[in-house]
Request: fold
Amino acid sequence: MLASAIINQRLLEHLNTGVLLLDADLIVLYVNPAAEALLEMSGKRCLGVPFYDLAHESAEATEALEQSVITGHSYTKREAIIQLHNQQHITLDYSVSPVAHPETRLPSLLIELQGRDRLMRISREEQLIAKQETTRSLVRGLAHEIKNPLGGIRGSAQLLERELPSEDLKEYTNIIIEEADRLRDLVDRLLGPRQIPKQEQVNVHEVLERVCQLIEVESQGQVSIERDYDPSIPELEADKGQLIQALLNICRNAMQAMIEASPAIEHPTLQLRSRTVRQFTIGHHRHRLVAQIDITDNGPGIPATLRENLFYPMVSGRADGTGLGLSISQSIINQKNGIIEFTSDPGKTTFSIYLPLE
Reply:
């Protein structure tokens, strides 16, 4: 039995795949709700509008659509970067199929859209979490192998110091002891926070304000701070000191990058923004409610050569940087089942911290 027109319509309306029908001039004739969501425009406003005004990829992509009408050839494109009517960019997979209009029988194009941004983000997060787990295991094993001989070296230097006939010679044993202590401290910092987190109800905006105070003091007024808070965010259970440290490391890196880049940057500005996100996936877990904290600066941006390994220990874009701040921040946020992501272009770098609120 063939499905009725009403059933077909209902099925189209409940698909997760965006569906559009274009005429031979690429004017939108039909759009389903999934396509409305992807294109960020209501169906009524889409109808009668050229498709390339709603979603533009390139002149070549538009020409390919026109050729598909003429030749009758279908094609598919993966992970296309599309600019929407509101200047936002999204990543889509789309398929184009020439069809005859169901009523007029005139040549038309059926376009199926599938959003890739969410899937790409989840995949990227899973890779990031896996990298962090691998790095922590490596660092823990390396720390064990380094600290054991360091203890022996330090102890031997102390025993040797007692047997030296001259006080002048103790300068050398002191160097051995001090360097052994320095290496031990470095290994401890690589391991990150080692104490058990002190869980308490924390207001995320109190944490942000504390970070702002510290940045204002350290920058000596060279960096302006803008705040954009959502006061409805509920308290979360966390170690307040560790959370301050995690956010401060990110803000301090941004502050230092902007100051070092001056006078090329006329008005170094740090923006702190808080929002809630519903039904958000972090790794393999979907959370009902998540706090999103965005830390944005107008500095020079992160070099492309560092982006893949930015959260690894000892990776730094500054000559005098230790490369431990972001690694420690990611470790602290991971302990709360959260994650830190970033986007960076010259003039705008944003670190986004996601913390589950359940």
